[in-house]
């Protein structure tokens, strides 16, 4: 049975998912845990991996097709040349496997050894201390015989093997 992408109405992904599942459809709405800063506090929350879209596993002959557009929360079926665009099972399986790997990895944890990949501290080994906003990290480096706290771009920090 092929998969199809459904575009849901703005901020109604969970509603579309619930209504499709209530009609007996097999759906996949991938979400990842994201950290955001609100009011100077770091908060974790689940956000859609593909904002605005979810996936449905349905046959072309299924009577549910006639009900899709009138399902609450559903905007449209992603189509090309007027025909719904099927998505290969391997693509959906790859997305599921990738979500599991991301959840298992959990990002860089405090106290974990890291290496700075770019900037003036490139190649220096450090210890990750904390995130500093959306795009920066605080790392501890041994510099001039003392441990220094330095703020570096998150993109330039990688786990040390």
Automatic annotation (TrEMBL):
Residues 1-99 form the NusG-like N-terminal domain. Pfam families: NusG. GO terms for cellular component: cytosol. GO terms for biological process: DNA-templated transcription elongation; transcription antitermination. InterPro entries: NGN-like_dom, NGN_dom_sf, NusG-like, Transcription_antiterm_RfaH, Translation_prot_SH3-like_sf. Keywords: Transcription, Transcription antitermination, Transcription regulation. NCBIfam families: PRK09014.1, RfaH. This is Transcriptional antiterminator RfaH. It comes from Tamilnaduibacter salinus. The lineage of its organism: Bacteria, Pseudomonadati, Pseudomonadota, Gammaproteobacteria, Pseudomonadales.
């Amino acid at each position: 049975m092929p998969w199809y992408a459904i575009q849901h109405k703005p901020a109604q992904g969970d509603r579309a998912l619930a209504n499709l599942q209530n009609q007996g459809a097999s759906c996949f709405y991938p979400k990842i845990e994201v950290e955001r800063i609100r009011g100077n506090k770091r908060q974790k929350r689940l956000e859609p991996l593909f904002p605005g879209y979810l996936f449905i596993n349905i046959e072309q002959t299924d009577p549910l097709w006639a009900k899709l557009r009138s399902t609450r929360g559903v905007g449209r079926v992603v189509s090309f040349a007027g025909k719904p665009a099927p998505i290969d099972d391997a693509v959906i399986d790859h997305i599921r496997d990738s979500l599991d790997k991301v959840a298992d990895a959990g990002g860089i944890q405090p106290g974990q050894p890291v290496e700075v990949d770019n900037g003036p501290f490139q190649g220096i080994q450090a210890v990750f201390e904390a995130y500093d906003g959306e795009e920066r990290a605080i790392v501890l480096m041994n510099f001039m015989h003392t441990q220094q706290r330095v703020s570096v771009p998150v993109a330039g920090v990688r786990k040390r093997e």
